[in-house]
Amino acid sequence: MLTVDFSRFPLAPGDRVLDLGCGAGRHAFECYRRGAQVVALDQNAEEIREVAKWFAAMKEAGEAPEGATATAMEGDALALPFPDESFDVVIISEVMEHIPDDKGVLAEMVRVLKPGGRIAVTVPRYGPEKVCWTLSDAYHEVEGGHIRIYKADELLTKIREAGLQPYGTHHAHALHSPYWWLKCAFGVDNDKALPVRAYHKLLVWDIMKKPLATRVAEQALNPLIGKSFVAYATKPHLPRLSDSPSGTGADTK
């Protein structure tokens, strides 16, 4: 289940991609399939081991094209172990709502992104997320849980302040919002409640079968109750000294 829409966020074979806070690796796997040189980074060692196993299995099964590479590694989002301007693309999906220093994370992403590079940021959308917080304290008051709810304008302002230029936004996963509302209403850890179990079966069926009816329904509902807010931005090229009016970049006074 992808949150980033790769028709709006195109990848070229050979692009060097950082999936920051990769979790179970869903976006990293898709980038690998598209021929990218992928680095999946997360602070969770167990998840990184699983992602590495899946990368190996994908390579063995021939799911990645020739020239694609994939690496899974532990790391700190606030101190990325990469030189400046290392990546063509950075993806950070459903991560920033967990991190107190979100501006620091944005600064690190901008540092390792090449000029002209692209970034995709996804976070829980304000409205559906607010419902979850209202229904259940346990939903967010856990170690490593959500510490903030972003409004779209707030996130876009932080992206611009980091030196990036947003070029598009959308919402995703409308069908998942009611599921989380049910989870919060019946107990976040209560998977036995009949409404929760029934809706979960619907979601699994939808993910596996991708029927036209639910695809159309989700597209129609995304602007209203989409669970995630997705923003795309680019890192601008800095003016070269030779672009100055004098042609030399020097002060002629």
From TrEMBL:
Read off the Pfam families from this record: Methyltransf_11
One GO biological process term: methylation
> Cross-referenced Gene3D superfamilies, in alphabetical order?
Vaccinia Virus protein VP39
InterPro entries (alphabetical): Methyltransf_11, SAM-dependent_MTases_sf
What are the Methyltransferase type domain coordinates in residue numbering?
Answer: 18-120
Protein keywords: Methyltransferase, Transferase
Q: Which GO terms describe its molecular function?
A: methyltransferase activity
SUPFAM superfamilies membership: S-adenosyl-L-methionine-dependent methyltransferases
Q: What is this protein called?
A: Class I SAM-dependent methyltransferase
Give the species. Answer: Streptomyces venetus
